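__Protein archive entry__

___
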Amino acid sequence: MKINRGCGALILLLLCNSGLFPGVDSQGHIFQYNDFVGLQKLWAAWNTTPNPETNLENWVTWVKDGKTPWPCYASTGGWQGVRCLRYRFNETEWDTWVVGLQLSNAELVGVIPPEITNIDKLTTLTLTGNPNLTGPIPPQLTDLALNILDLHDNGLNGTLENITWISEASTTGYFPLVELDLSGNKFTGGFPNFPGSVQLRSLILARNQLQGTIKSDVFENMTTIRTLDISDNRFTGPVPALDLFRNLNILNLSSNLFTGLSPLPPFISKLPPTLSLLDLSGLDIGGSFPDWSSLKNLSVLSELYLDKTNISSTLNLSALFPIGQNRTLNVLSLKDNKIKTVVSNDGLIQAVGLKIYLQGNPYCTDNPYSLDDAGRCYCEQICRITPKLPSNSNWKVIVISTTIPSVLLIGVILIFALVLHRNRKYMRSLLRKIDEADISARRFEFNELRTATRNFAEDMKLGAGAYGAVYKGILPNNLVVAVKQLFLETSEGRDNFVNEVLLISNLQHRNLVTLKGYCLHGKQTLLVYEYVDNDDLDKLLLSRHNSAHGASKAQVLNWQVRMNVCQGVAQGLYYLHASSQSRIIHRDIKASNILLDHNLHPKIADFGLARPIEDKQSVIMTQQCAGTLGYLAPEYMLHGELSEKADVYSFGVLLLEIVSGKRNRDLTMPEDEVYAPTRAWKLHKENRLLDMKDATLVVSDDEALEVLRVLETAVMCVQSAPDKRPSMFQVAAMLAGSANLVEPPMDEDDLGWPVQLNRISEEPESSGNPLSTSSPSADSIRGPMANSNGSLELRSLLHFGR
């Protein structure tokens, strides 16, 4: 029934005042009755969700008591995830419609009820990360004029091919469906049908159980697609025609059963020139590496993934990347293939921004210790050119075939002899400096460590990074150790090595990794640490969404384990700052530098950047700052002011990561909550700090108080002004519950820290377990102001877990 606006609003107000109709609030906002019905049906379907007071905050059964919170207004307790649009049609009255519903990681239990279509103005539906949200997608859902439908990483099932995905409302209205993400569910059957005109820009069906042959003309009406990801399914037959796409930017067909792909997938030549990422990993291409350089239509392709495609024979990179020709390809991944020989050149090894991954090929695994510069670059991502000195035979040729005077030749020999003598003298001085110091660390012979690691065998490698690798070693007395092999060929690098040995060899604390010894042999610089059984905190907690291995171990990180980690790291840092023989600033506190032993007790690792500070000093002014983006204190990064409070800031960021289970930069959050410190401050001001808690973390009422205590401590640690941050002694006491928390301030200036200068990579950093291989870290930055050279390579968000 339609009501004339002039008298209709008055009638509705009268009905509301008489308690018969709940559609007008005290401010004159007219709320659509159909929306009430739809939301109540959703609440009835999902009210068994765990922790509804958090996951479905303010969702209630409607009662005409004037006290039930209205769905749309935060000032009166709006319903979690409900987004509304208001239209003012006179001085006192507004029309209000529900236009969006966004519930991510909300632990929803149940199904999507068909009555959701009562919310007939809904344009955005985002229900993600709810594995207990099951059942099929109700066909009625497509009656809505949805603009965005995102249902990824739930437990939905059923088939997709019998649903009319593009409704008449969508094609004729103002909100055509442009984004459809159904990835990470349990859908079966064939590829969905899209009849009629389609304006989709993003179609993501990855990680389901879809199968069968895709019709050759399935994309005929979908020419506007920019992102197509159908990876990790069971599609068979030939790849359907892709030549109609005009603006395709990302194409992921990986891990399917397509046929007819050898020797060169025929559809490749028909791909549009706009393509920037192509992933064919897990497809049976086979044969020799295709001549991709002849495909000039892929003029802006920057990332190409061909892992596990059975490619064999010789890989001629020199032909693929001709010298002097413009290069757009920045990432080439050919992991786990059958490549035995690689043709390369020095220019490719030194190419800025070019990453080539060949791990798992015979080229890397058959002779891992005779790798040349190219092998180290493509198998370990350690890309540098080793200076080549003339051999004895070359010297003879020079003497015989040239007219160089003998005096010049003698002079050259003397210069080399002098350089060798100075290097040996320098090395002896370093060893003498260590030997003369009163340290407990033992000096190991190189052959002893080479035997312990089986000549640094690949299967003994625990991790690798830009500055070295870590190997498991077994000494003759069966003591298991971690051998950290550093690639430090400069005098500055060796000085840092000596600094690390002298600085931490006598540190003894249960929450610090113990340095057992060292070795300095020619260009070899090695550190021997105690072996820590488990992975680092980054892999166990923060990488669980990208790794099944990480996910399985993350299950044991309950609140008690996380609380013990927080307290242990705090005690270890306090020991460094105040209780050790000299005050030490770690400078690189981060998740990948926190190792967990077999009892899940934390140990702080990687002291390559550690810096002593004299008792009479409180602040050191540095010309360069070093550390990891995302954890750096503002005064240190911007002005080079280094003090113990820089570690306090980093520890505060770490606390937020431990409690939330997310990295300190989360692109799934709203723009003003992307960075953990800014999100924590915002929630603190709104008295909703517990919203930072990991949604998968189940806690009791008493544990919830501990969670809040940790979060409030973290907020105090990440204040912009260092003098407002507590000391590590105060932090450790607050976490232990032996000191009262001071209420964190509400002043906006206390957060006045430009987080955009402290950005971190979108991918997890390379971690060298059981000790980080960074000395400095692989993603450390240099200089008071960070620049792009300090960040890791960014890979597309839609490239899943390669």
Notes: The first strand starts at residue 29 and ends at 31. The radius of gyration is 31 Å. DSSP finds 20 helices and 32 strands in the chain.
